[in-house]
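User: Can you predict the 3D structure for this chain?
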Amino acid sequence: MTADAAEAPAPRVYYAYAPAWGDLSRALADLDRISGLGFDSLLISPPFASGLEDAVFRPVDHDRSVFADEPSTDAVLSRLAAAAGDLGLRLLIDLDLQRFDAQHPLAQSHPDAFALHRRSAEDGAVDPRRPGPPQGVALARLSDPASAGMILDFFSARTERWFGHGLAGLRLVGLDSAPPDFWRDAITRFRAQRPDILIIADTPGLPRPAVQALAGCGVDHIISSSAWWNGRDRWLAEEHEALRTVAPLLGQPEAPYAPRLAARLRGETDLRAAYGRALMVATAVGAGLIVPMGFEHGDRAPLSRRTPVGHGPLDLTDEVRAANMLAAELGAFDGEMRLLSGAASEVSALLRVTAPDVRHAEAGLLALINTRLDAESEVRPSDFIGGADAAFAPFQRLDGKGEPYAPLGPGEVR
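Assistant: Here is the predicted structure, written as structure tokens:
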């Protein structure tokens, strides 16, 4: 529900796991479906050849692609960007500037610029029940100026080609591997090659001070931890307030490499209600949306080359399309966020506004969330409206249907 809301565009990003396609031809054939879901951006996992299956973040050669039917990374990005652009999709890729396979040509030719993990007494005894640290991974020494400069030269030579082929943005991962000045220099280089690129920082899991240190580095968006929110606790609003000055946050209903939502739910849970709530919460809290491949079908298995994608028990095509339409309108609400309800309330009330301080905002977005998936819940405005600390016009439903404070269905977000 909004009061005096103004429309603002926001990115709607589909995250695809490139190895799941196998061939570039299958990726190209999937673009029409992705565009039809209402996304305006396609973000793919690192499209580079790796030494081990599914080890997408440890490429063995950035010039060779992950696809069986097209070995050239440059050709892959050129063909994907052109086909995606014809459908109104901009192409983005994941890029990790630190992790390489130990057999990568750069790691082989400049071994002093990399660190290889070797067990030491500090690692303690080996626990056979748990996987050990990754072996054969070369980590670029990005805190060393000489090594960092060499790494930036390596990637700059490639991004200049990739942007020329139509690549429109990057999601930078491993942001705790280098000081903020490194990322500022890297993004400055990338923007000099293509000023309109979209830079997303993969921030979930990083300490807040590390994310806050990215302020002024040129990041366009960071990513909310909304995928882990239970709909009640105050930490999501606190995270938003702590990080929104870095960059607007993208909501996500499910993180690409975390356990799937379906795998975290109890057996008796209404799957459609749970997925609908996760999707609409991510839409309501973000200045844009990022949805991983397979979420639209309720896939239970993690992203993997060998795991079929899109064979889950749900068809959320209409819900995802509606969420994207809504997300496109909510980019202006990137100011203060307040959770107006208490942790014991069955209905959570989350307020977002268009200004840094709610008292000076011209428009507000109020999201009402039924935290129950098994029953409807009554909405009592007197429980939360007083906490808004602002004088908005009466809130109206965005869909224009019914009363703003009618009971919420199981898992409903209004």
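The longest strand covers residues 59-65. Confidence is low (pLDDT under 50) at residues 4-8.
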